[in-house]
Every structure is written in structure tokens, then in C-alpha cells.
């Protein structure tokens, strides 16, 4: 019995084999690359290029080191404090109120397209028809509506919607459509083609689209620069949108600046009206007192006291003016409404800063209320901060009033002390000084308010833009998409990777045997020959003087078989078997018998697959004959009655399987088969046994002891790797002896390898005239 020790083979990558697998499929790679590249070309041909438009803004930075003399004019600037404020301005640029104004001013809610056979090209400025939406219906679900303008005749036209419904209208006359009322105007500067497509959008939807498309970048925060980018198919439209965005942004900033100045002006005007009346009354009182008392000069003895009183009075006037201003401001702060408070009145810097923060927060809250309700968390938080700041303002005013009142009391005490020194001065002089004091107080307050009104007027009249436009909107010449080079390169890579991935998946799932190399990777058993693949129209039997590839393969098999068979005087018995049906076992058996038989060495072929006889397929006389079955169950049957000489090779005899028995296992194991082999061994040089498949039935194992050598047939592209393992197990368990493999039906390109059967004799019995494309795509 054959004793072979099977060693576990280490998995190693056969690079040549792997590359050969894929190289054999090169037509599919070429076809895939062509498909992807053509697809990419078609995509590039009909896709709409997208261009990036950019505008650059520059913001001024606030000066924090202004002198006290100029601090009152600080609010005239429009600068930003730091980079964080610059980032917040980015959200203001793309806010919905600003974008809504852009949509309205540029009429972006209406889009025009020049219809084409494959794609539609968008129009923006050079349009023969202009549509303006006068009003929308109260339809909250309306997003857009598409119409096609056709049949233009004079001033009349016809619109057709997506549902093929038609609307007839005239230019410059409102037309009622599904979503609202629209007026169309004719632009005679451009000729009207066959038809145009017009899409009407809900302005809110266009604002949402602009919010997503406009991008804000801060290339250099320290330089206070801001880039605004927009990608679109029409550069002129994108540039117009960006220019309008910067315009509306500056207008919005100017409105915010003027709003605070206007509130301050209203407050000053009210106070001037009150102070003017008070000053006029004091001046009339002074004039009347002078006329009644005929006052000309003050007594000389009170000059020194009066000098001290005068100094204290100056300070008292300033304190009283401060107290009066604080009282007025306290009245404004005590009001329950959240209105802007006057600022920049020369009060305590801490109070001025708190009022400025309060006014900024009021403006931010009012902006937010344009897009949200009072229940919005952000609005609620702002209201809380506003109330907190207002309470701080009230506290600051109360503290300053207490400080001023304390100073006034001290000054008044000093004045009273000085007045006691001038008791001898006539009472008229005291009254006169009191009137003058009131007059000076009102004059100072009046002049102070006039100065602030002029400063505020200057602030209101200066139209300084919030941001300087460094670069008006411009568009790059090279489109950002589609990128031709990247798409073509990507198509080329996909054209290579797609078939590679498919083939890799198929190769990974493929567990079939194709060549002798596949067997050597899994078994230590030898491979004697590769039988070439045959076409249906080719002869499957080896003929006399046959020099076909099939005949040459079996001659190689016979030569190699002689090295395997033992040296003996009796017939050398060769059993041909396989794992399952359909692997070519019978083909190998018949042709081996025809090849090995000659005048000096007769051969006998025994059909031992009595369950499924197949040798009869190669018989030119398909008549019922007695066979092996009759011999096994009938002791009276003579062997000579079973032997039939082959018509193909007279030196080859055949014993057919005979009738199919109900108990083939019992017949093959009754000992008659071994007796038959022993009897025929003296008459033939070779006995070829065509046995049953080993994996399906155990019949062959009953007669395996009669064989000197076993040819295990596997079929290229059909037999699986597991069958090789099955054969290894049979040899390892000593159920088969002297086993060698025969690979049947091996194509010239088996498994993707170049495997040519040119033996070099120059003979050819076939003429393959396949068309070139079939040869290329043959797998």
C-alpha cells in the first residue's frame, strides 16, 4: 500500500500566478476603462461648470487709547473691537433679513433657463422676458413652480406648467398663476427663441439656499479681513449677489448707527426745550429785579467774602448741573419700557460704559425679534440681561446723586458761612446774586446740550460704511467643479479598480481546480498528465495514427504511467476513478486503454461502474451485451462471452458493465471480481478498470485491492479543492494505493494562466476560426 506523509503546506503568495490571473482578463480591464472614461467625458460634456466668486471686506479697529478730549467723539467710528466681533459679523452678513433684501432687489425668486435637448442653460441678465411676482397666495407649502413659455405672438404668450396646464397672458398685464400674481415684461434687446423655462421660487426658499451657499472665511483675523465666497454656474449672477450682500450689510450697519444717534437727539431736543423756558424765566426775573431795585454796584466791604462765595458757587453750579442731568437721566431710567437711553453726556465713565452696553443689547434684541418671538430662549436671555443692566444703571445714578448731593451740601455750608460775613450787605444784593446763580446754571446746561446736539448731528450725518470693500466681487477663470483632470483620473482608476474588485471577489470565491499547480498546492501526490479540453464537435476517441493534442496527452500519460507501475510478469492493473460524476473518468479510461494497447501489449478495459455504466457511449454498436454484472452474479457465465474487441483499436478488448443490478456493492465484494482480474492477468499486458466515483458510493473500495496503480481524475474548472482533500484522506487512511492525479479538460487558458499545448510536432486536426472578439473575451 502506498504510504505518503502529508505535510501541511505553508500559505505563500504566488505573485506570478496572481498577476497571470488578472492579465488574462485584460480585455475586461480595457472595456471597463473605456466605459468609465466615456462616461466621464459625457459627464464633463453635459455637466454645468461651477465657478467661485469672491469679495473681500476690511473692518477698521476701534482705537482704545483716545484722549479725554476726543472721547466724546468715539461713537462716530464704525470699527470692531477684536477678532471675536469679526466672527460675529460673519453671522450678520448671512442673516436672513439681509439675504431677503438681496433676493428682493435682484429678483432672485425668478430663474430663467434657455431650454435645450439635453440640458438647460441658466440666464441672468441677457433675458428676453422679465417676470416680477406682484403677490403670493397664502400657501405655506409652496416652494417653487416651473413654467415653460411657448407660442409668443406679439404681446401674447402661453405658459405651460409641469402638469401640462396652459395659461395665456399678455405683457405688462398681471397674470394669475397657481402660486400668485405675476407680471411679464418684454425685453426687446434680446430675441425670443422657441421656448424658455421660468421657475418661480418662494423667497424664503431662495434665502435658505443662499444661507447654505454663501461661505464666510477670515484669512487674517489680525488684519480684520473677511472673505465672502459663493459658488454658482453664472459668474455674473454670483458677483451681483455678493455685491448686493455687501451693500445691504453696510446699509444695515448704517441703520444701527443712526438709530442710537436719533434717540439721543430726541432726548437732547426735549431737554433744550425745558432749559430754554427756565433760562428765559431767570433772565426776566433778573431784569425785573434790577429795574425795581436800581442796582448799580456791590459794597466794597463784601469783596473778600464775595470772592470766596464766588469760588464755591462755581463748584456748586457744576454740581447742581450734574445733579439736574442725573435727575433727568433717572427719570428716563425709571421708565418701564426698554427704550434706548441717552449716552455720551459726560457722566461718570462707568455709567457711560453701562449705558452703552445697555443700548447695544437693546439693538441686538430688536434685531433678533425680527426673526424670532418673545418666547425665543435667546430673546428671553437678552431681556434678562437688559433688566439687569438697567438695574445697574439705576444703582449708578443713585450713587452718583448721593455723591453730588453730599458735595452740594458741603458747598452750601461754605457759602452760608461766607454769607454770614456779609450780613451787612443789603438784602437786595443777596437776591441779585441768587438770580445770577440760577442764570449761570441754566446757561451752562443750555450750552452743554447745544454742544452735544451738534456732536450728535455730525454723527448722524456721517455715512461711514461699516466695512470697506477691498475687492469687489470677482470670479476665478477656472471652474471649481467639475474638475476635468480629477474626474478623468478618477474614471481611469475606477475603470481599473472596478473589474479588479469584481475579479478579486470572484477569484476569492472560486475554489475549483484548474491546473496541476492547484493540486500541488494541496497534495503531495503526483500529477501524471493534463488532458486538454475538447469541443463538442471534436472526436473524443483516439484514432489510429492520431497526432491531435488529445492523443499526445495520452501518450504522455502512458509514458509517465510506466514509471509508476510495478515491474511484474502478469498484467499491470490500472484503476481509473474520481470523486464525483462528470469529471471525465470514463473518457480517461477508454482513451488510456486505446493508447496503451498495441500488438505486443494487449489491453483490457473493464467497465466496473455497474451503477452508472458510461463506456457504452463510446461504442459504435450500441447493442445490449452481457457484461461484468452477469459475470458477478452468475457463476455459469464464461468470461469469453464478456470480451468484445474495440473497433477503434483491435489490440484493445472491452468488458462492459452489463445490466444495472439492485445490489452492486454485494456483487463487487463477493470475490468474483478478484477472480476475474486474476484470470485476465495472464492474457493481457494491461488491465484498465473504469470504476465508480469514490465520494458517491463505496463500490470502488471493494475492488481497490486489485489495482497496481490508481489514476485519480479531476476536471479542470469543475472539481473543487475539497475533492483533493478527500483524495488525500483516502491515501492517508490506506484505502487507496499508488495514487496519481490526472487533470482532465484543461483549457489553454485554464484559470487565467497561459497553458499552451503545443507539443511541437506540427500536426493539427482542428481549425479554430473564432471571430476576433470572441477570442478576446473568452474567459
From TrEMBL:
Residues 572-709 form the AAA domain. It is an enzyme of class 2 (transferase). The keyword Oxidoreductase does not apply. One of its GO terms (molecular function) is non-membrane spanning protein tyrosine kinase activity. This is non-specific protein-tyrosine kinase. It is found in: Cell inner membrane. It is a multi-pass membrane protein. Belongs to the CpsD/CapB family. Belongs to the etk/wzc family. It catalyses: L-tyrosyl-[protein] + ATP = O-phospho-L-tyrosyl-[protein] + ADP + H(+). Keywords: ATP-binding, Cell inner membrane, Cell membrane, Kinase, Membrane, Nucleotide-binding, Transferase, Transmembrane, Transmembrane helix, Tyrosine-protein kinase. InterPro entries: AAA_dom (IPR025669), Bact_polysacc_biosynth/exp (IPR050445), GNVR (IPR032807), LPS_length_determ_N (IPR003856), P-loop_NTPase (IPR027417), Wzc-like_C (IPR005702). It comes from the Bacteria. Residues 12-106 form the Polysaccharide chain length determinant N-terminal domain. Its main location: membrane. Residues 436-503 form the Tyrosine-protein kinase G-rich domain. One of its GO terms (cellular component) is plasma membrane.
Amino acid at each position: 500500500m502506498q504510504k505518503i506523509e502529508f505535510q501541511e503546506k505553508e500559505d505563500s503568495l504566488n505573485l506570478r500566478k496572481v498577476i497571470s490571473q488578472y492579465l488574462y482578463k485584460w480585455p475586461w480591464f480595457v472595456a471597463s476603462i473605456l466605459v468609465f472614461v466615456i462616461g466621464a467625458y459625457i459627464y464633463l460634456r453635459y455637466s454645468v461648470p461651477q465657478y467661485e466668486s469672491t469679495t473681500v471686506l476690511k473692518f477698521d479697529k476701534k482705537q482704545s487709547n483716545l484722549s479725554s478730549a476726543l472721547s466724546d467723539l468715539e461713537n462716530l467710528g464704525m470699527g470692531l473691537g477684536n477678532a471675536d466681533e469679526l466672527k460675529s459679523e460673519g453671522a450678520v452678513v448671512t442673516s436672513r433679513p439681509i439675504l431677503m433684501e438681496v433676493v428682493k432687489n435682484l429678483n432672485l425668486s425668478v430663474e430663467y433657463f434657455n431650454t435645450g435637448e439635453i440640458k438647460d442653460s441658466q440666464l441672468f441678465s441677457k433675458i428676453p422676458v422679465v417676470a416680477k411676482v406682484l403677490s403670493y397666495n397664502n400657501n405655506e407649502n409652496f416652494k417653487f413652480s416651473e413654467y415653460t413659455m411657448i407660442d409668443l405672438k406679439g404681446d401674447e404668450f402661453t405658459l405651460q406648467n409641469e402638469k401640462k396646464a396652459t395659461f395665456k397672458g399678455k405683457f405688462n398685464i398681471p397674470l394669475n398663476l397657481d402660486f400668485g400674481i405675476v407680471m411679464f415684461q418684454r425685453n426687446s434687446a434680446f430675441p425670443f427663441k422657441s421656448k424658455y423655462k421660468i421657475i418661480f421660487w418662494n423667497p424664503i426658499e431662495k434665502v435658505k439656499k443662499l444661507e447654505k451657499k454663501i461661505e464666510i472665511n477670515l484669512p487674517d483675523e489680525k488684519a480684520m479681513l473677511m472673505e465672502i465666497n459663493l459658488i454658482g454656474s453664472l459668474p455674473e449672477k454670483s458677483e451681483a449677489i455678493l455685491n448686493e450682500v455687501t451693500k445691504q450689510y453696510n446699509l444695515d450697519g448704517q441703520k444701527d448707527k443712526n438709530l442710537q444717534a436719533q434717540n439721543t437727539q430726541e432726548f437732547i431736543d426735549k431737554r433744550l426745550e425745558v432749559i430754554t423756558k427756565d433760562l428765559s424765566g431767570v433772565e426776566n426775573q433778573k431784569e425785573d429785579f434790577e429795574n425795581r431795585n436800581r442796582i448799580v454796584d456791590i459794597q466794597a466791604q463784601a469783596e473778600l467774602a464775595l470772592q470766596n462765595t464766588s469760588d464755591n458757587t462755581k463748584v456748586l453750579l457744576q454740581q447742581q448741573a450734574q445733579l439736574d442731568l442725573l435727575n433727568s437721566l433717572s427719570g428716563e431710567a425709571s421708565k418701564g419700557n426698554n427704550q434706548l437711553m441717552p449716552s455720551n453726556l459726560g457722566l461718570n465713565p462707568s455709567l457711560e460704559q453701562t449705558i452703552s452696553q445697555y443700548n447695544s443689547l437693546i439693538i441686538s434684541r430688536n434685531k433678533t425679534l425680527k426673526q424670532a418671538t418673545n418666547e425665543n430662549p435667546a430673546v428671553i436671555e437678552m431681556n434678562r440681561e437688559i433688566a439687569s443692566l438697567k438695574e445697574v444703571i439705576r444703582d449708578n445714578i443713585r450713587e452718583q446723586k448721593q455723591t453730588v448731593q453730599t458735595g452740594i451740601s458741603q458747598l452750601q455750608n461754605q457759602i452760608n458761612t461766607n454769607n454770614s460775613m456779609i450780613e451787612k450787605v443789603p438784602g437786595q444784593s443777596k437776591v441779585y446774586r441768587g438770580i445770577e446763580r440760577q442764570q449761570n446754571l441754566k446757561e451752562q446746561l443750555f450750552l452743554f446740550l447745544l454742544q452735544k446736539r451738534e456732536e450728535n448731528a455730525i454723527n448722524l450725518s456721517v455715512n461711514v460704511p461699516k466695512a470697506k470693500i477691498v475687492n469687489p466681487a470677482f470670479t476665478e477663470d477656472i471652474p471649481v467643479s467639475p474638475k476635468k483632470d480629477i474626474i478623468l483620473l478618477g474614471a481611469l482608476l475606477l475603470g481599473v479598480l472596478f473589474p479588479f474588485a469584481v475579479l478579486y471577489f470572484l477569484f476569492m470565491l472560486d475554489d475549483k481546480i484548474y491546473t496541476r499547480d492547484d493540486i500541488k498546492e494541496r497534495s503531495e501526490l503526483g500529477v501524471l498528465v493534463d488532458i486538454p479540453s475538447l469541443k463538442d464537435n471534436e472526436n473524443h476517441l483516439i484514432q489510429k495514427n492520431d497526432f491531435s493534442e488529445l492523443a499526445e496527452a495520452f501518450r504522455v500519460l502512458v509514458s509517465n504511467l510506466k514509471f509508476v507501475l510495478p515491474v511484474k510478469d502478469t498484467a499491470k492493473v490500472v484503476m481509473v476513478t474520481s470523486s464525483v460524476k462528470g469529471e471525465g473518468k470514463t473518457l480517461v479510461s477508454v482513451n488510456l486503454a486505446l493508447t496503451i494497447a498495441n500488438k505486443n501489449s494487449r489491453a483490457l478495459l473493464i467497465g466496473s461502474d455497474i451503477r452508472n455504466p458510461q463506456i457504452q457511449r463510446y461504442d459504435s454498436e450500441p447493442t445490449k451485451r452481457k457484461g461484468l454484472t452477469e459475470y458477478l452474479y452468475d457463476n455459469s457465465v464464461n468470461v469469453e462471452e464478456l470480451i468484445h474487441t474495440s473497433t477503434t483499436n483491435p489490440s484493445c478488448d472491452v468488458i462492459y458493465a452489463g445490466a444495472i443490478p439492485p445490489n452492486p456493492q454485494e456483487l463487487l465484494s463477493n470475490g468474483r471480481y478478484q477472480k476475474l482480474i486474476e484470470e485476465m492477468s495472464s492474457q493481457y499486458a494491461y488491465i484498465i478498470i473504469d470504476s465508480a466515483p469514490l465520494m458517491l458510493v463505496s463500490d470502488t473500495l471493494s475492488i481497490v485491492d486489485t489495482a497496481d496503480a490508481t489514476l485519480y481524475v479531476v476536471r479542470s474548472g469543475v472539481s473543487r479543492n475539497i475533492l483533493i482533500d478527500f483524495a488525500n484522506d483516502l491515501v492517508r487512511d490506506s484505502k487507496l494505493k499508488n495514487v496519481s492525479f490526472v487533470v482532465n479538460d484543461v483549457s489553454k487558458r485554464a484559470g487565467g494562466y497561459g497553458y499552451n499545448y503545443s507539443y511541437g510536432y506540427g500536426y493539427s486536426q482542428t481549425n479554430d476560426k473564432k471571430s476576433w472578439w470572441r477570442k478576446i473575451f473568452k474567459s
